[in-house]
Specification:
The structure is a homodimer of 197-residue chains. By secondary structure, chain A is an alpha/beta fold. The first copy, chain A, is 44% helix and 13% strand. Chain A has eight helices and six strands. Chain A has a four-stranded parallel β-sheet with strand order 4-3-5-6.
Chain lengths: 197, 197
């Protein structure tokens, strides 16, 4: 294999994917070359096309191929609410619920001081500009993840929005639908108890 | 995300990689587009190039970009020994030991009747042709994996080579170097006991 430059380069390139080590990269490369060359070519084209055409929505910062994403273009969305999420996947999860009709802002990351990710890296200034520019905005819903980094991000945003005349809310913490108390962690039960209604 | 065709296509294409489900594919796509577009383009080129240029060595069947792989081209290799392995990764592991100077045949798979993989699918006929054509060959070393499928493959090859005037050997089974007996499985200890020397 030592002199097989294309194969080595393919394995090295596959390792740039998150969560892929040298063994997985080898397995992927062998699989594509042995059983699915059509898939390899398709993946190559999809990568090239996406890298060239996908950009950020100028309003909500999510991935889109146009100046504005479909959600920001939709005239039926409620401009009084803005939901802040970490990633497009989180936005998609919110959309699938069908319970939210407002606007979004996608941070494309979260504050993580330990990894050197500060407010500038996730474009918080862009969020604040957006909030200032939406005249009808009454509520900002913080839907960052309920991890240490997500909570920190929500806290920093909430602090920065104080006194801007906009209501800041956070998704409710509580017992997940369909779960049994016996198997729910104590922190969640404690929150659910405090926030009982 | 629904109307974001390039992104959707990229996620679908990434799912063709072995061991990658929809969540991993999403994570990979987001990572490449957000943090490593250069990596995306590099991977695209590596895929396209490998899919177009990597073929099988006409002698040993491993991946190579030329008619013959570097090992088969090497005049210093010992033509009296032929080592049969399942994959190029297994061949690379054998080479790294530096303990083997003979030739190889890479099956590019293993017999697996449950998955519908028979002798024709892994090119056993090509192996037998190769063995017939090597005039100096005295020993075939079966180095397929010590799994159920690998053992079956070794057994089928050994049976087929009976009466061909070539010695057929199998890698020794035994206790791995550096391991403590207490933690070695019983089958391995039993084999090591029977094959003691």
């Amino acid at each position: 294999m030592a002199d097989n430059h294309s194969l080595e380069l393919l394995i090295q390139s596959l390792r740039r994917l998150p969560g892929v080590g040298v063994k997985s990269a080898q397995r992927m490369a062998f699989h594509l070359l042995q059983h699915d060359r059509e898939g390899a070519v398709q993946l190559a084209r999809a990568l090239e096309h996406a890298a060239g055409s996908v950009k950020h929505c100028s309003l909500c910062h999510t991935f889109t191929e146009d100046e504005l994403c479909p959600t920001c273009r939709d005239p039926r969305r409620d401009h009084s609410q803005l939901c802040v999420v970490e990633t497009p996947a989180d936005q998609a999860a919110m959309e699938r619920t069908g319970a939210y009709k407002g606007l979004y802002f996608v941070l494309m990351g979260k504050l993580s001081p330990l990894d050197g990710v500060g407010p500038r890296d996730i474009g918080l200034q862009k969020l604040f500009d957006r909030i200032s520019s939406e005249a009808d905005l009454r509520e900002v819903i913080l839907a960052t993840n309920f991890t240490a980094e997500g909570e920190t991000t929500a806290h920093v945003i909430a602090q920065a929005l104080k006194g801007r005349g906009v209501q800041v809310t956070r998704l409710a913490r509580g017992v997940p639908v369909g779960s049994e108390l016996e198997y729910v962690d104590l922190g969640t039960i404690a929150h659910a108890l405090v926030d009982r209604r």
